[in-house]
Amino acid sequence: MKGGGYYSRVNRGTKQVISDALDLVETAIEGMLIEDSDRVFAIADYGAADGGTSYELVRNIIGMVRARAPKRPIVVNYNDLPKNDFSALFEMIHGEDEILGVKSYLKDYDNVFILASGTSFYRQAFPDNSIDLGFSSTALHWLSEKPGIISDHIHAVGAKGSELKAFAVQAKKDWQTILLHRAKELVPGGKLVFINFCIDEQGRYLGNTAGVNMLDTYNAIWLELVAEGTVTNEEYTNVVFPQFYRTGEEFAAPFSDPNGEVCKAGLNLDQIESRVVECPHAATYRETKDLDSFVRAYVSMLRSWSESTFYNGLDPSRPPDERNRIVDLFYGKYEERVRRTPEEHAMDHVHYYMMISKANVP
Ligand SMILES: C[S@@+](CC[C@H](N)C(=O)[O-])C[C@H]1O[C@@H](n2cnc3c(N)ncnc32)[C@H](O)[C@@H]1O
């Protein structure tokens, strides 16, 4: 993903998704034994990107913990992949970037420390029994690896038969891996609040709630570039998002087998429900009817999380300029489509919001 705080600047939707988790976080913290002591209260944000979208929620968490434990040191661990732009994150959280438009929580609360962990959430990222509250939003749909090709789509939502099965099997394995590592990291009585992309009870998923299907549109435009001779067949199949949107049943499955490893590790699924957050860009357009602003903001937001997948699917023998030109052409075509039927385009977010706890006696 692009660095320099670009992610937070253009992603109003994911910020709203996180704000909507406040009730879950409140319930999680209310249910925890938080004593005032010298022991660190550790928060982890898994897949935090530049930290801007979860910033207000983290401020709220700090406030809630501080109210019950005035002297307790608090550490916020921001986790993401090694190549994440952690410099942008530190600049933002220290209030050296205007992007947040609010005072850094580090200026409001003392005895609060921020640390970064550049270790994949597919590994244990923190020591045993060290995290009190783990949080993750819109990150755990990224698989640990691409389990195969999808011959006629760029995303598992369009896969069928054995190709879909390979993604589902990988996603099942990965969900268990994520949970088992978090079970080790959590203190007994610790909690996880996870907000994950999904396919909900009505078959809805990101950018597929009504109107144009966003991922089908990506696929159609990528195919258009093949038909025009700009992108090769091989480059077409190279582009597959290594992601999977799990169903509620798939999220809940590891918790329902008392002899399974997740239950034996002491994890319990306390709460799970799907929620849809309306695309803020589409909502603004409906009010303002400012088409240029909508097209620009909407496609920039799409670009912020998808561009690298298309760029990396292009043959590495092409010079970077050429790859950038093709990617520009791709998003230019997306812009044209939005311009033609703006009211049909929206990236509504569809997530399962879940709270998980680790037993007090492991
Ligand atoms: C769409 S962003 C979400 C950022 C933020 N949590 C939010 O909700 O706005 C997904 C983030 O997950 C990170 N990510 C993907 N796979 C990861 C992994 N295996 N370990 C840690 N972070 C990962 C990406 O680098 C990216 O920053």
Structural notes for this entry:
A 7-stranded mixed β-sheet has the order 3-2-1-4-5-7-6. Helices cover 43% and strands 16% of the residues. Helix 3 (22-30) packs parallel to helix 4 (55-68), helix 12 runs antiparallel to helix 13 (291-313) and helix 13 packs antiparallel against helix 14. The chain has helices at residues 6-10, 12-19, 22-30, 55-68, 86-93, 105-108, 161-185, 214-227, 233-238, 248-252, 261-264, 280-288, 291-313, 320-340, and strands at 41-46, 74-79, 112-117, 131-137, 186-197, 267-277, 349-358. It is an alpha/beta fold and 362 residues long. The longest helix has 25 residues, at 161-185. The radius of gyration is 21 Å and the shape is globular. S-adenosylmethionine binds next to helix 2. Residues 1, 11, 14, 18, 47-49, 53-54, 79-81, 84, 120-122, 137-139, 142, 305 line the site of S-adenosylmethionine (SAM).
Structural class: alpha/beta
End-to-end Cα distance:
38 Å
- Helical region count? 14
Low-confidence stretches: none
Helical fraction equals 40-55%
Strand order of the largest sheet: 3-2-1-4-5-7-6
Percentage of residues in strands: 15-25%
Helix and strand sequence: HHHEHEHHEEHEHHHHEHHHE
Ligands in the model, by name, code or SMILES, are: S-adenosylmethionine
Largest sheet: 7 strands, mixed
Task: Write the SSE topology.
Blueprint: H1 6-10, H2 12-19, H3 22-30, E1 41-46, H4 55-68, E2 74-79, H5 86-93, H6 105-108, E3 112-117, E4 131-137, H7 161-185, E5 186-197, H8 214-227, H9 233-238, H10 248-252, H11 261-264, E6 267-277, H12 280-288, H13 291-313, H14 320-340, E7 349-358
Parallel strand pairs: 1-2, 1-4, 2-3, 4-5
Antiparallel strand pairs: 5-7, 6-7
Bound molecules: S-adenosylmethionine.
